[in-house]
Design brief:
With about 425 residues, the chain is α+β, with helices and mostly antiparallel strands. Helices cover about 15% and strands about 25% of the residues. The structure holds fe (ii) ion (FE2). The site of fe (ii) ion has 7 residues, from loops.
């Protein structure tokens, strides 16, 4: 849905696998009395009847869809994406070079064989600055008879720094010896202050890569967001066997597999489909349950941790599962629901430090996100995140969190103000 400056509200496709809404966060919105505030509540719950003309069943894009094909050759960059650093003056550029392999025997590419270079500047025909970064590959291994292993292309992450606020930059990425991307552009966030905000932020969860996804992302792009938050559950590669066979109900249809398999090429398909958006608009991701992806050696979250850049070090975190950043006058906190959140743990200690630095005179808005909601009417996930709520609710409440965004439930729902279930 969109909250417009004139106070009207537009809802759009109530898609099955997606929760998505836009916020205008500007001084005009703050003082707009035509938009009811939660402070005016509590309101009587309202349920909008499902529009049966909408697609009722999410259908994945097939491997043959042109939008998921590899369009580059050799070691030219693909799947280009941006992520904010902790402040406006820095941004992450990520991309992939080389082809993934899937089979019984795979040979990982050498990350050092391809350089990670971004050339950038404020003029499209004069990219006078250069930044270098690091690269890696990850493996998704299933050492069981008949299952296939995966090794990724080379994943590059470069952080470019020294950027000015609210400024358009042009860039290309790659390795000059093997091919650079075409020139893309992005706009930096405004300086953090009570009077400067990104004009539009999209928040999406549980995207997958279905025909519903394409409709929602198309709608999202048409609304020209300055920033996109993805609150967990990304590619749904874990609804597939390693041979590429999919199912709506993995546990029902694949009950005899020795391990919960995944089909990692779905991640590459997702990155290719999203590139038009993510090469221009920063995407901030936090993990969902579909990113767990257990493999050999009890490794988990390898695709999530490898493919995306996160400003975790910049925000004082030691984990890619939780971090924070500023976007104009908003301080965003991204929490990890699938890592230790106990009061004696590192995440909780980091959150205490992060919130202690939160300065409402610089960033008046405090927005906190994580994947599974603490409060929802969806009974299938009833109290699923109760332990996290018990551990963390008091802390984020004590700092006056303004808005919480979650995913996990594949429907749009918003609640009256709530604390400790009241
Ligand atoms: Fe989920």
């Amino acid at each position: 849905m969109s909250l417009h400056r004139d106070g009207s509200i537009t809802t759009f496709l109530g898609l099955q696998l997606l929760l998505l809404f836009f916020c205008f966060l500007s001084p005009a919105s703050f003082s707009d009395a035509t938009i009811p505030s939660t402070l005016d509540g509590p309101f009587t719950p309202v349920t909008i009847t499902l529009d049966t003309s909408l697609r009722g069943k999410a259908v994945d894009l097939p491997d043959t869809d042109p939008r998921v094909q590899r369009y580059v050759t050799g070691f030219q960059p693909e799947q280009i994406s941006l992520a904010l650093s902790s402040n406006y003056d820095s941004i992450w550029v990520s991309w992939i070079t080389g082809e993934f392999q899937i089979g019984m025997n795979v040979t990982p590419l050498d990350p050092k064989s391809i350089a990670s270079i971004v050339q950038f500047g404020t003029l499209g025909d004069s990219l006078i600055h250069t930044a270098t970064g690091s690269s890696l590959v990850y493996n998704q291994l299933y050492p069981f008879e008949g299952l296939l292993n995966y090794t990724s292309g080379i994943i590059h992450h470069v952080r470019i720094t020294g950027l000015k606020p609210s400024t358009v930059y042009y860039y290309r990425c790659g390795d000059p010896s093997h091919g650079m991307s075409k020139i893309h552009h992005f706009k930096t966030m405004p300086v953090s202050s009570p009077s400067s905000y990104p004009s539009r932020i999209a928040i999406v969860g549980d995207t997958g890569l279905t025909y519903n996804t394409t409709a929602t992302i198309s709608h999202l792009v048409q609304n020209s967001p300055d920033l996109v938050l993805l609150v967990g559950d990304v590619s749904y590669a874990n609804l597939y066997l390693t041979n590429g066979t999919s199912s709506d109900c993995y546990s029902c249809n694949f009950s005899n597999t020795p391990i919960h398999e995944t089909y990692q090429p779905r991640w590459d398909y997702w990155g290719r489909f999203m590139e038009n958006l993510t090469s221009t608009v920063p995407l901030m991701v936090v993990e969902g349950n579909h990113e767990l992806e257990l493999q050999a050696g009890n490794k988990t979250f390898e695709a999530y941790s490898s493919r995306f850049a996160f400003p975790y070090i910049e925000s004082g975190s030691t984990s890619k599962f939780y971090y924070s950043f500023n976007a104009g006058g908003i301080h965003f906190v991204m929490l990890g629901a699938y890592i230790d959140f106990d009061r004696s743990g590192e995440q909780y200690e980091w959150l205490k430090r992060d919130l202690a630095k939160f300065n409402r005179s610089v960033t008046p808005w405090l927005v906190v996100t994580w994947h599974p909601p603490w409060y929802s009417t969806y009974t299938a996930h009833y109290k699923e995140a109760e332990c996290m709520k018990v551990a963390m609710e008091e802390l984020i409440y004590s700092y006056g969190t303004d808005i919480v965004f979650n995913g996990h439930v594949h429907a749009y729902e918003r609640s009256n103000r709530v604390y400790t279930t009241n």
